[in-house]
Design brief:
Blueprint: E1 3-8, E2 13-20, E3 26-30, H1 41-47, E4 52-56, H2 73-88, E5 92-97, H3 99-110, E6 115-121, H4 136-149, H5 155-165, H6 171-182, H7 186-193, H8 203-209, E7 214-218, H9 229-238, E8 243-246, H10 254-257, H11 259-273
Parallel strand pairs: 3-4, 3-5, 5-6, 6-7, 7-8
Antiparallel strand pairs: 1-2, 2-4
Helix pairs in contact: 2-3, 3-8, 4-7, 5-6
């Protein structure tokens, strides 16, 4: 059974789901930008027998608080560190997708005592020669989300915008998208569009300090992955103990769309750290 709870970080309220098996090692799952903990609904079935699972809504997402500001990587990482220290209360396997993968790596650097291993699923590392405009599909999506939520619309207005964007989608799918988008704070998308998500934080410096077992999963840049070959090589240089795995033909959503291949590599990694 998966239950939702709320944790007061003393700055915001962090909504989270908890399930799996009490007494088993803890795994914490972090969603991507404009996502929510429900992205990992299937993971509670997949890993619940062997892990005590937690999946928070990041600040500005889902049912968590929506502050006006505070959407840099250190802001997100600070929330998760307090959550790990006060709710989970043991070093965890921290796994994230996209923005959640960047937060995972940031926690691994800034708060190493709270993690035993890291899994970064297709993180937008965005080298010095790249920014969001180099990913037009992502930029278009985040722009649409920002324009949809910036004026605090009603749920029905968000639903109408979703229908206009996806006229052939089923009513159930439209409501699922609308519920997710309604939980997104404008600020969390705007800071990504303005390329300020890493303000005050040097990711390369952070990567050099990571010492725990780390798994980087990525796909084909030509298929929609946001990690290029040179990014993966640089990641391995900065985090030499990391296991770096490319899933051929994988896109940015490879955790879900290449689940069988992903599951194999994740299971091998988890067995190795045990």
């Amino acid at each position: 059974m998966v239950q939702e709870n709320t944790f007061d970080t003393r700055e915001i309220q962090l909504n989270y789901a908890e399930g799996g098996t009490n007494g088993k090692p803890a795994m914490v799952l972090l969603h991507g930008l404009t996502g929510s903990w429900q992205a990992y609904t299937d993971a509670f079935d997949e890993y619940g027998a062997d892990w005590h699972l937690f999946a928070p809504d990041l600040r500005g997402h889902g049912k968590s608080s929506q502050p006006q500001t505070g959407y840099t990587l250190p802001d997100y990482a600070g929330d998760i560190a307090r959550f790990l220290q006060e709710v989970v209360k043991e070093p965890v396997v921290l796994a994230g997708h996209s923005l959640g993968a960047l937060v995972t790596l940031t926690v691994g650097h800034l708060f190493p005592a709270h993690v035993r291993a890291l899994i970064a699923n297709d993180p937008p590392l965005l080298g010095d020669d790249l920014n969001l405009v180099d990913y037009p599909d992502a930029q278009a999506w985040f722009t649409w989300v920002y324009e949809t939520v910036k004026d605090q619309p009603s749920f029905e207005q968000v639903l109408a915008s979703c229908e206009a964007l996806n006229p052939d989608a089923s009513e159930a799918d439209l409501r699922e998208i609308a519920e997710r988008v309604s939980g997104v704070a404008p600020g969390t998308v705007k800071i990504a569009l303005d390329d300020h998500q890493k303000d005050g934080y040097d990711l390369q410096v952070g990567l050099r300090t990571i010492r725990c077992p780390t798994l980087l999963l990525y796909g084909d840049f030509e298929c929609g992955s946001v990690v290029r070959e040179q990014d993966a090589v640089e990641f391995k240089r900065l985090v030499p103990q990391a296991t770096v795995v490319k899933i051929p033909n994988g896109n940015h959503m490879l955790w879900w769309e290449e689940a069988e291949k992903r599951r194999k590599y994740v299971q091998e990694f988890l067995r190795a750290i045990e």
